[in-house]
Design a protein that fits this description.
Length: 259
């Protein structure tokens, strides 16, 4: 990884934003259903195709794994893409959606960009270079996780509560809710960015795909926090995720883990 990789990832996000801004709340937006019944719009596929084309031109030796066009994360350099994380929000006119871009080298994210143009926010991080946010196109500001050290003072977020019933344990999640000061469901990428910013202290999801969280791992870690799956392993491809400010991680895992 080099600073050039981060610069290029930010260029990819610019290209994605140009497409998503134009298609957000468009009256002619085309929406289809994938086999898992999740929605996909013409903007999702247009973004991924545009990003893949730019990558093919600039980094033809790198591999690509994306939500819409497939691919796997293997050895060497892989760009992991979610063209629109929060597609349901996108198609309903809710501004909480983003393009997620990560560069993964030998299985570990080293660059991550999360661009949410409808929120006027962009977050990014690179190994050893810290975690940053730009608000409304303003000057970048370095971000860091909170210093909260007790669950009873902690602010917690998740996504759809029903996912805990199907994929983990609703009761386990609610035990964490009961232990915390406050809880919300900001959902998807945004909650993990809020952890990195120190606005909230914990975010947990019972089911995720690699492209949902690859850039968020490096973002949270470079902000001083901790990122694991619900088994406690620091991996973006474990099928679940817990992010925290680090101080609360072990206590939260203790409540969430099965067995």
């Amino acid at each position: 990884m080099s600073s050039d990789d981060l610069t290029f990832a930010l260029r990819l996000a610019d290209a994605a934003d140009a497409i998503t801004r134009a298609r957000f709340q468009a009256h002619d937006l085309v929406v289809e259903r994938k086999p898992d019944r999740s929605p996909v719009t013409d903007a999702d596929t247009a973004v991924e195709d545009a990003v893949r084309a730019l990558l093919a031109g600039a980094h033809p030796g790198d591999t690509v794994a994306g939500e819409e066009r497939g691919g796997v994360v293997g050895a060497g350099r892989t760009w992991v893409l979610d063209p629109i994380d929060g597609t349901k929000n996108f198609l309903r006119g809710v501004p909480a959606w983003a393009t997620l871009i990560a560069l993964v080298v030998d299985g570990s994210p080293v660059v991550g960009v999360v661009s949410a143009p409808a929120l006027d926010r962009r977050w990014w991080a690179a190994k050893g270079l810290g975690a940053w946010v730009s608000r409304a196109g303003g000057e970048p500001q370095r971000i860091a996780v909170s210093g909260v050290r007790s669950l009873e003072d902690a602010y917690l977020s998740t996504t759809h509560l029903g996912s805990w019933v199907e994929h983990h344990s609703r009761e386990r999640y609610l035990s964490l809710v009961d232990a915390c000061w406050e809880s919300r469901a900001f959902g998807d990428f945004w909650q993990h960015c809020l952890v990195a910013e120190g606005a909230i202290d914990l975010a947990a999801e019972a089911i995720v795909n690699p492209w949902d969280v690859a850039p968020l791992q490096i973002l949270v870690e470079e902000a001083g926090g901790k990122f694991t799956d619900l088994g406690g392993l620091p991996r973006f491809d474990g099928g679940s995720v817990l992010t925290s400010n680090g101080h609360l991680h072990a206590a939260a895992l203790g409540l969430l883990q099965l067995g």
